[in-house]
Amino acid sequence: MNVNTNVQSSLHASSGEIRYRRIGEKTIEQGSTDLQWTTSNAQTVSIDPLGNVGANDSRSLKAEPKQQGEGSLNEVQTYVLTARNECGGSDTQTATVRIVGSIEPIPVVQMGSVFFPTGYPEKQHPDRGLLKSQQEALSQTAAGFKAYLEYDPEARLSVLANTDERDSKARNHSLSERRADLVKQYLVSGKEHPLDRATIESLQNENPNKPPQSLGSFRQLVWAYNRRADLVLLPKGDRSTQYFPGNATDAELLFHSGWPDRKDVMVLAGEKESLPVEPGPSQPDQK
């Protein structure tokens, strides 16, 4: 009696390389491939590590790297098909799938509160008053927030603007709104890192904290410290660090309790053309 012990089989993946990307615990990208196999004259078929399978079938495999730590991914996963028959015949086939990509930490959004010169932005020029050092701080925040949106597309920034205690509540409320608007405008229209998720709130701080660095009298420092806009990352709730930029090149202008000349504000804001020196408004000091 003739006994056919010959077993034939094939195994291949539709794509030999698939991508995977994870930020924190959130999977951003997870590729897949189809593992396909055929056999003939086989009674039992198994694929390691899948276990027993049908004689002719396919299975969709998602990218699931064994690596769990942060870093780049370049991992090869091997699948081995073994087909056997009752007459002792067997055949083995191998297919590999490479997983490439990365496992990344949750981006950190570096947020520093934004400080303003006394009385700025003015009602007549609501787009002026964001000095160079504060523009740089906002650009850093925008870059971090843009990266963070990959992790949480629903995240948003809230801007809470403050004034010092001088002048009327009505005028200070309007001033705080202009400061919040100017911060939002910079975040939205920034050429390097434009954003569209900044939301605005207005808040007046009536209980100032002690400033971290002394540039003059304590009262002046309190005023300077409160001429700021704070940022809040929502829904997480992280707040910007409220440190007065005492080492910035424009710190003296931010600190000065009197109404600065527009020329000084424009030059330190990095404008190519400065305005002529004009006297400040005759109304009481605003902050």
Taking Cα atoms only, what radius of gyration do you get, to the nearest Å? 32 Å
Q: Roughly what is the average pLDDT, rounded to an integer?
A: 83
Beta-strand content:
25-35%
Largest sheet: 6 strands, mixed
Q: Could you give me the name of the CATH homologous superfamily of the largest domain?
A: OmpA-like domain
> What CATH architecture of the largest domain do you see?
2-Layer Sandwich
CATH C-level class of the largest domain: Alpha Beta
Kindly state the percentage of residues in helix: 10-25%
Structural class: alpha+beta
Poorly predicted parts: 199-214, 267-286
Number of helices: 5
DSSP strand tally: 14
In short:
The protein contains five helices and 14 strands. It has 287 residues and is α+β, with helices and mostly antiparallel strands.
